[in-house]
């Protein structure tokens, strides 16, 4: 069993993405693929596909995508992500400096070395900068709470899915539901569309191709969005709970619908306001490579793993008849996978770069399906009539 999954880990490109940049590929987390493989027929591709499209490689304590770094604090390791302009702008306040220079990372690393990991995470959190202490998160399954009456068990085919999420984890869950025959509506604000729209077009198409695009202002057009959520069979979102609640768009605000499943994917759980991205969430869960470690494991691996687990949770909820709110913490998902046995770090097995996945559909332009979606909402409203 070990040899089989180590071989799959190597052939998928996941070993190639894990380890020190001047060292051998790291096979220590091969059992991650063993657990993920039953969740999708192409789980290995889903875990390494972004890196294949972007041509990423292993960089040790710098994430494959380059936005997150693992650094030694006084009492352990921690990760900080500077992926958004606001994160970089907040670095001087984080360090207590007037400015941090064109490259803030050397100053950040010197500051981290003087702090405890908890102090780093706490101060970063005050500034809304994603940060995590290595292994701080507890492994846990999704939290499931009954919020509406159940219906007869059913599959995804023919269901209407409102996907309010962005980036990778939530959109991957929506993509897997679309593959299974659901109608998936990708919802975005014109002021803040999914950030991956402006990134590598192949990645955005890979994750969002085949979805309908609905673009509307969450404040001025809240009633229109509320109408979509009211008729949806599944809602996927990754917002902080208060972001939707203050617009009366949360799961407690929408007209009840029997069997509706509401999936919320957050970095550290719904009771935490801390932001997170795939690499720092993986560090929080302790999901790091062991060879010369700690080093980053693959590419933002908590993101696709959380998308896979969210899809599994939706399918299981459909089997129960739905009517549930499902809370998924990316850090807890990473912690669950981190508890799997470690494989031997170095082997003679091949570890080629991850192949780029085939992209079968171009994602819809922002708001391209607004008229069709409004008609779909009207039709769904009339179904019980």
Automatic annotation (TrEMBL):
InterPro entries tied to this protein: CoA-transferase_III (IPR050509), CoA-Trfase_fam_III (IPR003673), CoA-Trfase_III_dom_1_sf (IPR023606)
Keyword Nucleotidyltransferase: no
GO MF, one annotated term: transferase activity
Keywords, ordered alphabetically: Transferase
Domain of life, source organism: Bacteria
Presence of keyword Metal-binding: no
Name of the protein in question: Acyl-CoA transferase
Source organism (scientific name): Mycobacterium asiaticum
